[in-house]
Design a protein that fits this description.
Length: 244
């Protein structure tokens, strides 16, 4: 945390020492700078909301997609492999554009920018979540399955009460990385008009004509947000390991 504060202070010092910088546009001690900072921070709500909803949906889809990969049936494994390979091959920016502009024409539905962004991010991330869950479940010792069968647990109860709790504990760092990835990739939703951090920064650049200063603040916003999320994930991981 001290390093983060040092980095922020250094950025402001460097900005103030350069004659080419117009730091006044984001100076909180001036009325205009304070208004601009407040405008930039107003995009934080949609950045966090979009990321959290998308990661929750992607985890559910990823878990469902991961289960066929554990089957002895080659056709079920083929469905898993087909989904994972196809989704991972599509660039996320292209998927966002297709969901927003193409899905309404294909499905005949009206979709707003928020849900278009959430659906695209969730679909893109679900393929990675599926591989994370597959690896986590396969890492659980086979003796756990045998022990579950000896106490007459069916497949669903075995997965719910025995296998998944252990698998989730093991893949928690990877899930935390995916949340960080989701927070960063949410910036791409700005291309379809989502009023998140990056969109707000772009709009301010158009009005103030100070891209260097504005985007520097944008970098700091993402830096602080992701450092906080990473710290929370590490704390949760440590707590789960202690409980274990």
């Amino acid at each position: 945390m001290k390093k983060m504060y040092l980095f922020i202070a250094l950025a402001f010092i460097l900005a103030g020492c350069s004659g080419n910088w117009g730091w006044y546009v984001v100076n909180p001690t001036t009325e205009g700078g304070f208004v601009n900072l407040k405008f930039l921070l107003s995009g934080l709500y949609y950045t966090i909301l979009t990321s959290l909803v998308a990661i929750a949906i992607s985890i559910l889809i990823g878990l469902v997609v991961a289960l066929p990969a554990l089957s002895k049936n080659k056709y079920l494994r083929g469905i898993n492999r087909f989904y994972v390979e196809i989704v991972r091959a599509i660039p996320i920016l292209v998927l966002i554009l297709w969901v927003y502009y193409g899905l309404p024409q294909v499905a005949g539905i009206t979709i707003d920018v928020f849900w278009a962004g959430v659906i695209a991010l969730a679909l893109s991330d679900s393929a990675f979540e599926a591989e994370i869950f597959r690896a986590g479940i396969q890492s659980v010792d086979k003796g756990q399955y045998e022990a579950s069968h000896t106490i007459s647990l069916n497949y669903l109860d075995t997965m719910r009460f025995v296998i998944l709790p252990q698998a989730i504990r093991r893949v928690l760092p990877a899930l935390g990385n995916q949340l960080v990835y989701m927070l960063k990739m949410s910036s791409l939703v700005s291309v379809i008009g989502m009023e998140e951090l990056t969109r707000k920064a772009n709009e301010l650049v158009v009005t103030e004509y100070r891209p260097l200063e504005v985007y520097t603040i944008l970098v700091l916003e993402y830096l602080i947000l992701i450092l906080l999320v990473s710290a929370a994930v590490r704390r949760l991981e440590k707590k789960m390991n202690t409980g274990n």
